[in-house]
Write a structure and sequence with these properties.
By secondary structure, the protein is α+β, with helices and mostly antiparallel strands. The protein contains 16 helices and 40 strands. It has four domains: 48-228, Immunoglobulin-like; 431-686, Rossmann fold; 699-789, Immunoglobulin-like; 791-903, Type 1 dockerin domain, CATH 1.10.1330. The strands form twelve sheets. It has a six-stranded mixed sheet, with helices on both faces. The chain is globular and about 90 Å long.
Length: 903
Amino acid sequence: MPLLKLKRLVRTHRAAPAAGPTLLRRLPVALACTSVCVALAGFVATAPAWAAVTVTVVEQGADVTVLRIKVDPPKFETVETPAGSFSRFSLREANVGGVASDGRSLPELPATGVTLALPVDLRDAPIVSVVPEGTLRRITARIYPTQAPETGQIQNQALPDFEFNPDVYKLGKREPGAALGRNALFKGDANLETLRFAPYGYNPDQTLVSWHDSYLVTVRHAAGDCFRVDNLRDPKQLAAYDDIDKFIERLPLPGLRFAANQQQLQRICAPSLTPQLLGGARFLIITHPNFVAAANTLKAHKDALGIQTRVVTTLEVTGGSSNTASATQIRNWLSNHWNTSIVRPKWVLLMGDAEYLPTHYDQPNSWDSARNAGDIWYGQFLPGATATTVPPFGIGRFSVDTLAQAQTIVSKVVAFETAPPVDVAFGQDFYSRLTFASYFQGSGNTDQRWFAETSEVVRNHAVAQGYGVQRIYYASASANPLNWRGGGAVPAALRKPGFAWDGKTSDIIDAVNKGTSLLYHRGHGWWTGWGDPSFSGANLSSISVTGNQYPVVFSINCASGIFDNETVDLPGNVLAPGYGPSLSGVFFAENFLRKPDGALAVIGDTRSSSTVDNNHLTMGLFDAIFPGLVPSFGANTPVRRLGDVLNHARSYIAAVDAGTAVNHHPLDVGGARPAVLNLRQQLNLYNLLGDPTLKLRTAAPWRFPVVNIRVTQGFAQINVPQECLNCPPFAPRPELVTVFAFDPETGRTLGRGLVDDNGNAKIDLRGWQGNFWVRVGSGDGASQQAALSETDTDNDGVPDSRDNCIRTKNNNQRDSDGDGYGDVCDADGNNDGIVNSLDLALVRSNFGFRGATRADLNGDGVVNALDLGLVRQLFATRPGPSAWHAAGTATAMRLPVGEEAQR
């Protein structure tokens, strides 16, 4: 194998005193990886090609689980360093497990683990015993020391120095089969914990690796009859669930299928206590009072889609004492609500920036002078939960400072779910176009990181499923990409000059403006945006999304998801000398989310993060969307709601850390697959800036062209034919299709129902005798509406129930910005809910422009005097009224024609 050179230069560590331990630093590391076959005297069985550790269940019962960990002989590869030769455990093919190391310069040793389901009401720690089986086997090897984690800061791209401290190294003694601790993976209606073990022992003084053929592990705990709670089993509670809630209640819990003792999960019980509140919402919006109008608009929309929503203000959280709620008050309110409601939330949205709704400050960051900040803590309140427990619900945030900003984001969500982008019959469209931006680091032939290689692993899987993935990859002009960091060859399709490696800002802008369902970056980052290829907040002015083709953004780098600049350096949060972002600044992710024609949502981190852990997170995110990326992890059904996508990724990285899931990270030198370096930090850094109920759409939307309604014996009988003309054959049906009936005169909700596979649903009208409208909605489709008795207020031939300008004639229903308001009654170019000077400035700044732009208010292809005239005509009014915005429909139906313009 050719000699590989790697410079580790990021962090400079002070040399130890002369009489102290040796510290090697600031030296290039020559890495020659050579296979070393292990010959063992007395070992009869044929060793596999690569070392493997497998875990099987021997016995499982109400109070005990017995496991057998089978250990194969190790496989090593030699790594040459400034401190001499080391042997590194090779995991080129046996890619399960983490690393059992507590810190830098300690020996890098494999770990394995298992996820167990335990009794739901278990409060005491299980008792774990490990009994070795077979001969104790030994071999001499000088094990590679654990190195400093690498990060992806734009301003600090060099690799860490190689470190070896002999005195620290000698502290890394480990016994074979040692139990390495436990972690609470999930709490709530199930109790999942991961247990870690050391399959190999090591004595650094003797440079001796040891192991047994297998270990019999017995996990004892208090007997329990219930390993999973089914809230639908209690007849007292069942009445609180309608068909939609029953469907949502049956959605799988995070991580449940990864438990080794699956038989115990059949021990199902009803809840032991009946909560006080019979009702409950599936979607909670916790908002500062400043943004309650936007929250109510989003609630009306979600209710109409079948996701029952409740808006809670911080004033309610504090019991009426203050509009300002602390993080502890918010979490305590959520905990109390969870424990006192039968129908409990699946998703939670925090509406407000960090100064309005605080985030949680956790441990100090490994690189930055700041505490890690994130919202996951709000879901870690159940008994036994820790800072690494996956929440029982998806969490998102609209980090907004003004009501106008909140309305803009809500408008994008409503538009995307009501009138999703148009799909095409042939070729790639918005739904099948993905954009990957990534970086080959270094000036030679060999990559110094895994940014591009990780992206290629994901890309290959997506392409195999029929998606078009645009590569926007960058390498320096002096680089000639031939080898990945682990020694594998860069594919021929990515060799220069055929592939230019010249991805740039304009390529990203063009891809977004053309329409891409997902924009992903893997590389260096900072508050202001992405490193290479460069894309920053300053470039967002060139982004102009049209036709509701808003991208979801995975910003997997360092600190580009910061939103807490207003509070990170406040007393009580600050770490000297402070993090330093401007209190009045608006940084990359917030900017992209708030932009009317920008991102639909952003997943990103608030601080510097580990290169390795970011790669693991990437695998988890994309395994949710494209099942099968990580072998044996996840189900065959995609996870698409963004709050659930992030929780899936969290579950995966936690399972890799425990050694219970396939480690799909690209290889490092020496055949190693890097393990998770700091699980707690990684989970606390990444947040969803966006609506957690929103689905990432990677397939053409289902359509509901006809809604047939009749009333029989007090029930609305509804039939909804479902079609998806451009879907591939045998495409799965929509996950959830709902019908929602309401009175257009008052906005009163009359009832809702679940559409079955035959397109049928019924709604109990509870004695209602008047006219009503029905909305058909789905996260996988485009909304449709109809009335029991159709009316046409403006006599334009379009029924009121489907008219995007109910009181202004527009039989063409043209809606240039796709927000559900027709052009003739909408001059709100920035979608903040009011026509004002901002919209006038938008038209003036684009005057004369030809092409797609939000400033072209009437959709005639050019920004001209007609658009200025529309702004002047509708100045100081709100858009609409439109049938597609339920909050404004009731008011409009009660007003005489002409009066709505005076609102």
